[in-house]
Specification:
2 domains; 7-stranded mixed sheet; transferase; globular; Adenine-specific Methyltransferase, domain 2; Site-specific DNA-methyltransferase (adenine-specific); 10 helices; MeTrfase_D12; M_m6A_EcoRV; alpha/beta; single chain; Rossmann fold; methyltransferase
Length: about 270
């Protein structure tokens, strides 16, 4: 299995094989919420259309796509002992939040991802990355993972945009896989700060609406709750247990029910 080079809250590395088996065959895979790209990495479509609303994520993928060898070499230079301190982390985080150099910003995004607490990607209301230092003994630089990702990007086009735009003008020979921020399973589990905008019930409902009316197959991942089953009513469901991996409350990193909802194209629906 190919692993992504970024840590990512809600990443699908452990579920990629199961999700891949659920996705219908097509020429193009469209991902409106690409995240760290685990499903992208572990499927074999002729072409990929990868979108995310997070500009730093898409910029990092773009810089890697355009100049992979230089990017890997230059980013690795940040992974030195002198930069693995709270003071250095704060300084580089400030640089990330202020630089207008997209290449530098992409390298710093990889550095922050591997040095910050739990690999979280979180922004404040001003749009600044605000995750604390992770205090890891020796953060891993993902050379092999970066090169694997760069190789696969030769088949991909990248877009920084909201999910609703990703559903526009879909190729007829495509399938859509959606991994949105999940509905909360408790009042303390509502983490949706992958971007400044957040992702609430209105967005969950609209995504379900787009999936229901889409003219190509759509598969959505989410928590298995009464709400998601109601939103995705009419889709084919798969439900199974998964281990929560990101929670500040370590005692709540238990089992959760995952739902895969597969929607048939509108014109084929009964």
């Amino acid at each position: 299995m190919n692993k992504p080079f970024l840590k990512w809250a809600g990443g699908k590395a452990k579920l990629a094989e199961r999700i891949s088996a659920t996705l219908p065959k097509a020429r193009v895979l469209v991902e409106p919420f690409v995240g760290a790209g685990s499903v992208f990495l572990n499927t074999d479509y002729e072409h990929y259309i990868l979108s995310d609303i997070n500009p730093d994520l898409i910029n990092t993928f773009t810089q890697l796509q355009q100049q992979p060898m230089a990017f890997v070499k230059d980013a690795s230079a940040l992974f030195v002992a002198a930069n693995n301190t709270d003071a250095a982390f704060r300084q580089l985080k400030q640089r990330f939040n202020t630089t207008a150099d997209l290449y530098e910003k992409a390298m710093l995004f990889v550095y922050l991802n591997r040095h910050c607490f739990n690999g979280l990607c979180r922004y404040n209301k001003s749009g600044q990355f605000n995750v604390a230092f992770g205090k890891y003994k020796a953060p891993y630089f993902p050379t092999a993972e970066l090169l694997c990702f760069a190789d696969k990007l030769s088949r991909a086009e990248l877009h920084c945009r909201g999910f609703e735009k990703a559903f526009s003008n879909l190729p007829s020979d495509s399938v859509v896989y959606c991994d949105p921020p999940y509905v909360p399973v408790s009042s303390t589990a509502n983490f949706t700060a992958y971007s400044e905008e957040g992702f609430g019930l209105v967005e969950q409902r609209y995504l379900a609406h787009l999936a229901h009316k889409c003219k190509v197959p759509v598969v959505i991942s989410n928590h298995d709750t009464g709400l998601t089953r109601a939103l995705y009513q009419g889709a084919e469901f798969q439900s199974f247990e998964v281990q929560r991996s990101i929670s500040q409350d370590t005692e709540n990193r238990g089992k959760a029910l995952e739902l895969l909802a597969a929607f048939q194209p509108q014109e084929q629906a009964a």
